[in-house]
Amino acid sequence: MAGELVLIVEDNPLNMKLARDVLVFNGYQVAEAMTAEEGIVIACKREPALILMDIQLPGMDGVTAFKQLRQYPETQHIPVIALTASAMVTDRKVILAAGFDGYETKPISVKHLLDTVRTVIDKRAKATPGGAPSAAPAKEPK
Ligand code: MN
Fold this sequence. Notes:
Order of helices and strands: EHEHEHEHEH
CATH superfamily: Response regulator
Distance between the termini: 36 Å
CATH topology: Rossmann fold
CATH architecture: 3-Layer(aba) Sandwich
Number of strands: 5
Strand order of the largest sheet: 2-1-3-4-5
CATH class: Alpha Beta
Bound molecules: manganese (II) ion
Shape: globular
Number of helices: 5
Strand content: 15-25%
Helix content: 40-55%
């Protein structure tokens, strides 16, 4: 079920527009940031279900931003998918080693992006207590 809030951090207006249009058309809510610094502020305030994080950004890069997001209690649980124009094997290794939840290579493939977004959000919902409303957890004895 779509409707979740996805934060897109991307400095390229065309990539931003494509990602936004695809997600909105498929029922997601979207928040946008053109820098990592702005993205972190929005992530803390709005706690999106997922963040799409460009790696090459002016100022702070996406890998550094990801590491900061993992430091804050408000954002440490939010899955982050890296967006990068680079298909270089070394870059891919750095990104995966940093612990990103997924990886999308630009130019963006619409179907692949939607599949990845859905899979990562569903996986996180299952792993999070309260993610399944029908299965109320038993109360712990005090
Ligand atoms: Mn960029």
